[in-house]
Amino acid sequence: MSNDCSRSLDLNDKIEEVIENSRTIEASETKAKIMEQFRGTNGVHVDVLRLSLLCPISGARLTNPVKGAHCTHVECFDLSSYLGACVLQDHDWKCPICDMDLPQTHLVFDEYIKNILADTKPVIDYVELLENGEYRCNHPSLNGNIKLTVQNQQGRVINLTVKLDTPMWKVKRVFVNRIGTPDALNTLRFCFDGRRVTDEDTPRSLEMEDNDTIDVYLEQNGGNLI
Fold first, then answer.
1. 110 with 205, same domain?
2. Where residue 180 sits, what CATH number does that domain have?
3. Most exposed residue of 1, 33, 170, 213, measured as fewest CB within 10 angstroms of its CB?
């Protein structure tokens, strides 16, 4: 038997072993931890905290959410991704979120996050945590559309609703036509969250949320906002 095949069998055995033997953190325990996080914001009032439903290792939506028994964070990673990285790729047995030593025997499942995954659509990749320990979905992918603001330095602003998969070149075209400068299309550049946006980027790929703002500038103007 090849070494790769042997490792794959070992991985499957470890996954089954964890599923059968690891304990599950009750939802009430995680809710209490969430409320504690809100109390520990150093006097800064926070309405919501975002909880990702994506595995930090694979980038895919969680299936079997786990973390370390001694980890203090709410976030989880996926069991298969973690064991795969450690068994098949020889990664260190450390939590990918907090870097704590995390052998297989210290893995625990999280009932709170398992419930969220069961109650939300597969397209939902995050939820917002509330001060009372509950959560809500406030995600543009619920309806496939998102509201955006596009503005330039002169204060010209347009507000529009686009689909999550609309390429930015289409948004550019709408902007120049709305403000009456169609000849500027080829030199127009968008910036979002501190970085340049490409023509093929979409609100989904940029992880935009409702009412996010895109800044506009011209290449020929020294990179200044127009």
1. no
2. 3.10.20.90
3. 1
Examine the domain organization and report whether 73 and 132 are in the same domain.
yes
CA dist., res. 91 & res. 97, Å (int): 14
Domain boundary among the residues 108, 138, 168 is at: 138
Rounded to 5 degrees, what are φ and ψ at 107?
A: -75, 140
Starting at the edge strand that comes first in sequence, how are the strands of the sheet with 195-197 ordered? 157-163, 145-151, 212-218, 188-192, 195-197
Per-residue pLDDT 10s for the chain (226 aa) are 445 545 566 788 889 999 999 999 999 999 999 998 888 755 566 778 999 999 999 999 999 999 999 999 999 999 999 999 998 888 899 999 999 999 999 999 999 999 999 998 887 899 999 999 999 886 655 567 888 999 987 888 999 989 888 999 999 999 988 888 888 888 889 999 989 999 999 998 998 888 899 999 887 544 444 4
Q: Which domain holds residue 169?
A: 145-221
Domain total in the chain: 2
| pTM for this entry | 0.59
Residue 226, domain member (yes or no): no
- Separation between Cα atoms, residue 65 and residue 81, nearest integer Å: 10
